[in-house]
Design a protein that fits this description.
Elements lengths: L9 H18 L2 H22 L5 H18 L5 H11 L3 H9 L4 H8 L6 H11 L5 H8 L3 H17 L9 H23 L3 E2 L5 H17 L4 H14 L25 H17 L4 H14 L8 H14 L3 H15 L1 H9 L12 H12 L3 H14 L1 E2 H14 L10
Parallel strand pairs: 1-2
Helix pairs in contact: 1-2, 1-3, 1-11, 2-3, 7-9, 7-10, 8-9, 10-11, 10-12, 11-12, 12-13, 12-14, 13-14, 14-15, 15-16, 16-17, 16-18, 17-18, 18-19, 19-20
Pfam family, one: Sigma70_r4_2
Organism: Leifsonia williamsii
Family: Belongs to the sigma-70 factor family. ECF subfamily.
Length: 419
């Protein structure tokens, strides 16, 4: 799928699951329907810059995807089953049916379908991110720390596995929602992260993608209001999104958390997030998601950066890495160690992550190292670490911020270091 943000912004991504759901609901062939939607997006990438974006984006994509699907069916007329399906397509009132499905939101049904038990959890999440969340294969691969080709194969196999297992599309029952919620939550969490901290593009935040992740999570929460994990996820999203208004300046430049103007944080989202976080903490075990929500709640409670209770945050990270020793929790713990015990202690902890292949090539590790080195007074080493992070990031807003740090720590009229 094209990723040019000037054409396919998050507003367009938000309608992708609706178009996919409508097509699958109508024809039932998940793999070919999802492929048809991707082909429609490619057609849009060619047509829209020349003719302008249509007023009804959802209707345009649905019509284009339906035509693409029918073309695929007709191209396989040598096969009897496809001939029969082609004949059936010819007698339907397509315009009337398109109007009917265009106004239907089957996002929850598509979420549950993508998390079919015939798929392993990683494939469930990857397929959800593609079909429901509208992320590109490259974005999904980055979230899973795997190559793009590997992820493309995983998505293709997932689509075929759903069709082979006898997919059933429609409004999911409570049992289906409960059984497949873990994979759905993981996909929505990754979708939110891609919106709040985009892998690529020019924006510090893709606000519309964040909003769509929250909307879909609300759907899941409404379907299972007593589920502590879903409650925690919604709380985490709200507590994090509350900072969006202060996360970028008027020119789109990134603003780091310690220097954000907290008067610009969304108080309504903070209040709802805290309420939901308290409910999740009271009703379920200390799972990784619940602990992450607690960490976000501690950050949200501080009126300014100096008031942040880093000792409590470190204690929560200690608990988090015991149940989830992945690279992201461990990197977050390094930051907390540096704030509580000093930058040298943080650097010592960071050294243990150097060998983690999942962080190879990531800009986040050298970015954390740079901040710790700067606090320790090693300004030349900090400048070089910022430069390494700058050269590794694929997000323009982050690159501009990291470049500013390199320039700030460079000697007057001195050369800008490169990694």
């Amino acid at each position: 799928m094209p990723t040019d943000d000037t054409i396919f912004d998050a507003n367009v991504r938000a309608v992708i699951p609706l178009v996919t759901a409508a097509l699958v609901s109508r024809y039932g062939d998940f793999a070919d329907c999802e492929d048809a939607v991707q082909e429609a997006l490619l057609e849009a990438a060619v047509t829209w810059p020349r003719e302008g974006r249509p007023r009804d984006v959802r209707g345009w994509l649905l019509t284009a995807a339906r035509r693409r699907y029918i073309d695929v069916v007709r191209s396989n007329v040598a096969r009897r089953a496809r001939e029969e399906r082609d004949a059936a397509l010819e007698v339907r009132d397509t315009d009337e049916r398109d109007r009917e499905v265009r106004d239907t939101d089957d996002s929850l049904g598509l979420l549950v379908l993508c998390c079919h038990p015939a798929l392993q959890p990683p494939a469930q999440v990857a397929l959800t991110l593609r079909a429901v969340c509208g992320l590109s294969t490259a974005q999904i691969a980055a979230a899973f720390y795997v190559g793009e080709a590997t992820m493309a194969q995983r998505i293709t196999r997932g689509k075929r596995a759903i069709d082979a297992a006898g997919r059933r599309f429609g409004l999911p029952g409570a049992r289906e929602v409960a059984e497949r919620s873990p994979a759905v939550r993981t996909a929505l969490y990754l979708m939110f992260n891609e919106g709040y901290a985009p892998t690529d593009g020019a924006s510090a935040v893709h606000a519309e993608l964040v909003a769509e992740a929250i909307r879909l999570t609300r759907l899941l929460h409404t379907a299972a209001p007593g589920d502590a994990e879903t409650t925690a996820l919604l709380a985490l999203m709200l507590l994090t999104d509350a900072r969006t208004g202060a996360r970028a300046d008027d020119d789109g430049g990134l603003i780091a958390l310690p220097v954000q103007d907290r008067s610009r944080w969304d108080r309504a989202e903070l209040a709802e997030g805290r309420r939901l976080a308290a409910a999740a903490l009271a009703s379920g075990p200390a799972t990784p998601l619940v602990i992450q929500t607690a960490i976000a709640a501690v950050h949200a409670a501080a009126d300014d950066a100096d008031a942040t209770d880093w000792r409590q945050i470190l204690a929560l990270y200690d608990a988090l890495v015991r149940v989830d020793p992945g690279p992201a929790p461990r990197l977050g713990r390094v930051v907390a160690v540096g704030m509580v015990s000093g930058p040298l202690a943080g650097l010592a902890e960071l050294g243990e992550l150097e060998a983690d292949e999942r962080l190879a090539g990531s800009h986040r590790l050298p970015s954390v190292r740079a901040a710790l080195l700067e606090r320790a007074g090693a300004l030349d080493a900090a400048r070089d670490a910022y430069a390494t992070a700058r050269d590794r990031t694929t997000n323009d807003a982050e690159r501009r911020w990291l470049s500013a740090q390199v320039e700030r720590l460079s000697p007057p009229d001195g050369p800008t270091p490169t990694a």
